[in-house]
Amino acid sequence: MPDNKRQHFLPRHYMRLFADAEDMIGAASITPYKFVGPTALGKQCQSDYYYVNEEENPEDEADKWISHVERESAPLLRDIGRKFSMTGDEHVGMMMLAVIFLNRTRKAAEIGKLSAKWWADVIIKDAIDRGELREPQGGWKPGMMDFKGTNSMLLRHCLFHPFFEMVTLNYKFLKPAEETGSSFVTSDNPVVVMNQLLDKRGSERSFAGFSRSGFQLVFPLGPECCLFFYDPKVYKVGGKNSSVVVLKPADVELVNSLQVQSADKVLLFAPTTTKSGVGELISKFSRFRQSIDSHFQQWGEETGKETFVLHRGSQATLPSPWNFSRHSGNRK
User: What confidence score (pLDDT) does residue 200 get?
Assistant: First the structure.
């Protein structure tokens, strides 16, 4: 087994971007809502042997690899969030980090194994019906089969295609206007993907899609900095000659609303953030949250008929249009 029992699915060096000098970070659980306030960041977003499937591969290399990534990326994240600019190599590194963060969290794992759990239900129920397996006491229920090591699988197989698709995107640094009191928040699932162009709320055809026109990705890098990747053929963002876009409080709130939607369980923020501000944010936008199970849908469950299933990743919906980004009128 790995030497480090406590493994973070959100790295501590990332949480430090929102913490004070004493490594205290603000936290609040979303459902049900509970304002925790300043707390030790080391206690957040972690689990025992999170990256290890001790039953199948107790010496899994995923934890060693992710530890190496964290050592290399810690100064990158810290410096970029302070200087609001990137070199070419730093740009490449941030694209890969965004994809890694998208696939390493607990919410990513729970969504990622929905298809596997559905197939397990189908196969086991069929074996029980044919008498090949004995039915468990109380009967077989969907979801009784679970899977470990999902994040290790995602980190092995789901990084490079999204990374190469991100090469086509432009980026801007978002910054709250000074002296407004506004600041960005983050969560235990901080990288948000969305697609304003193709978002049709309630439609089965609504996908963000790394390779689709209109793709957007939001990555908070501290209370004063948020990295925004976007499709330049679809959107105009800020000024043409500046990499920094200053946001009014209304737009900062919309950016933060995406974290309320994306979060698995916990919203994170600077320890000086007020309880009333956090409570208002969660109260206003928690209705846009989707359950884990809602990412998997099926039709045609009648006996003897085909069953169609749809498994989609986590994505957010913009509650209302923001002012710093608009459609360019172009389509790919």
Answer: 66
